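Usage example:
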Amino acid sequence: MEKSVLRDPGFYVMVAIGLAAMLILPVVLDMFTIMQITQYVVLAVFALSLGYIWGFGGILSFGQAAFFGLGAYTFAVAAINIGETTIPLILAFAIPCLFGAALGYFIFYGRLSDVYLGVVTMVVTLLFWKLANHTAGPEYAIGAARLGGFNGIPSIPVMNIPGEPEAMLDPVQMFQVFMGFLIVVYIVLRLLIASDFGRVSIGIRENETRASLLGYDVRRHKLVVFAIGSGIAGLAGAMWATYQAFIDPNAFSMEMSAKALVWVMAGGVGTLVGPIIGVILLQWLTLKLGTMELLNSLAVLGAIMMVLVLALPKGIVPTLRKLIVDGWTLARRKKTGGKADE
Amino acid sequence: MSDWTNILETRGLTMQFGGVTAVDEVDFTLRDGELRCLLGPNGAGKSTFFKCLTGQLIPTRGTVTFKGQDMTGWNTHDIVNLGIGIKTQMPNVFDGVSVYENVRLSSRRKHMAAQAKELAEKTLERCGITHLAKREVGYLSHGQRQLVELAMVLAAEPALILLDEPAAGMTGEERDRLARLVLESARSAAVIVVEHDMVFIRQIAKFVTVFNRGAIFREAMIDEIMADREVQEIYLGKQANAASA
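Running the assembly step on the lines above writes:
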């Protein structure tokens, strides 16, 4: 946990798997499947945003969709007005990040406890959802972009190569670029978590009182973590908007926030791989259950969730990791005749 | 800042919770480099007093002055950064990470990474917990956690050390080491120790302040305090009442 990222083989394995998926999948899979997987990639970035602030900053947000939706709308409005997608993508990170910082200022400097943090983030999401739903008239437009209320914003530009608005990405290229985003977000978060800043965050997660008794400004620290998570959620929102070429107020829905929580919880809080695996597993299951039409997919998912929480309360990845480490220790102990250290 | 003789002074310090006055008009003075023991029955307001000193509670009335600087109402981290370290009554440690990391997070506050590492290792050794360095703190015994927290306090190199029941849960051997550590630390810092363990108090105490019902009840040398009938009564009276109840 505390050793340098650069000396952790797991880190390289994960990046290698990511790069391999990015390069090999388009060769072996058909385009429809690739487009399906692109969806997982976008949602994995979204899940990472919550996995980071929850698992490594101790901030349990029930409103991660607020930033996801804000990023999506920012991207849509900016892209329609500007006519290209590079600056909108940057804005889709920056604006939710700033909004997260502003909201975080009131939450953390106002010393709201965890429960109220949950309530405030949830209410902010609902406010956005309500607001976005009430922008149906033609008077609700930002520049050339009509917000469209519950009908959403159609015809959002597809991502283009920076500086060349005409060079739009095809679905396979989009998948590869998004995989690139996911890998970069993963690497940046891993480095951040291993940095001194990240170690203090973990300290704050473990014991806020002690962190402040060591002289760390807990409020400022949590604000920065929250803002970074908000920016990443916004980026995921932008990816979602350009992937679908469409966005509606459901980006702000409670379901989006809840799903993020479920993915992170199922995959494992306190890991970065966990949320990604949570997304892939649960989204794939939802899809399969949806096509079977045998049972209500939400009911089955709920049941699976309950089983996961009861059987693997720490999540899939931490449980697997423990099994492997225990197995390894046991094997070594047998080899050395019961003299394995630790 | 420079014009001070007492490292810590409180004037009229009062902390009320609703109708309860936990700390009542306390005028407390500590000289630089002094080692002071704070005694008093449970509920006398010792821990609340500590919390007022470190900004974990904002006093209802009165002032706290550290090195001539009035810091009443400051944020905890700002107070701590002036040079105050506290070991709380129930250990406040980072359970999910290793002992080493706990201590390093403390030493890293004021030092660059390389010095922080060195200081953390040195402090672990001083506290006799080097063999636990890699263990996760959440799995340690209460006494060991106390030592980890003490190491965190010492690694910050504070000018004033507050220790709230540091010997609780310790084995005899651990307690003796703790006493040596406290005496050793008192050579470079002012120290206030709250403790009930009389064997421990005997090992370290010189001048003692006795709290009762939120106020200072007596201040005298330890032998005088031990011989004081009224002090015995506030301690024993409580126990006698509890036994008859």
